[in-house]
Amino acid sequence: MKFQAITYSIPWNLFLITMGSLIVGIGLKAIVIPHGMITGGFSGAGILLFYYTKSFTPGIWYFILNIPVFILGWLFISRRFLFYSLYGAIVLTLVMDFIWFEIPVKDLVLASLAGGTIIGAGAGIIFRSLGSAGGNDIISIILNQKLGIRIGTYNFGFNFVLFLFSFGTLDTDLILYSMAMSYITSQVIEYFITLFNQRKMIFIISNNPRKITDEIMKKLKRGSTFLKGEGAYSGREKEVILTVVNTFQIKRIEEIAFTIDPDAFLITENTFNVLGKGFSRRKIY
Length: 285
What we know:
Elements: H1 3-6, H2 10-32, H3 41-53, H4 58-76, H5 79-98, H6 108-127, H7 136-147, H8 151-166, H9 172-194, E1 199-205, H10 209-220, E2 225-230, E3 237-245, H11 250-260, E4 265-271
Antiparallel strand pairs: 1-3, 1-4, 2-3
């Protein structure tokens, strides 16, 4: 079975959601709450309600806040996404309520770094699935699907507003540390989302383009496309090679191009995501 098919299988998605929810729950219960900090999104709102009311638990508050959001998931995404997200919300609720230990980090700066990294890693793993852990994840995916807003960017903006309204009610230093942790979380989420998707787009200008593409196809099993170009000074028509490879193949591309043509001109560009045969499959929630 190809990996693209595995990514759409139920066991794989349940594994990602379970693992990610477990990691997020550990970050929340073992670092954030013991230090009196808050996170963003619905988990942060649940923690705030827990601080204020001292009733229920952060996990139960989180689940209560999720109820109207699940309706949005049902309307704007899909039933499959909703059921995966319901499962994720239940797992995260249980993890938050049953984690009993604390990670012994005393310094608030280190706690912010550790909390942001752990929560971001867990959330990033969940975003690799076809579901979510509920809450702000559902809203961010809807905005990403409908408007193209980046998930990490939206989460940070939402959290900033949440923290802004917390001033005057919580200790200012704790809010600032929480904001720093939120930024770290958003960056780690983006890293995990693009971890296996990022590719390199390479342009090669050479006097031996056909020979170079033949070697690329033979040695790297990668296709290429010829773009029509013209030298600005010479006025000569050229065939510009366009190919996309993973990061481990860049040096092999350079070796092929400059071995065949020492005077070749090579440009490498980062790409956020590549969809299509031989690369990532389009993700449909």
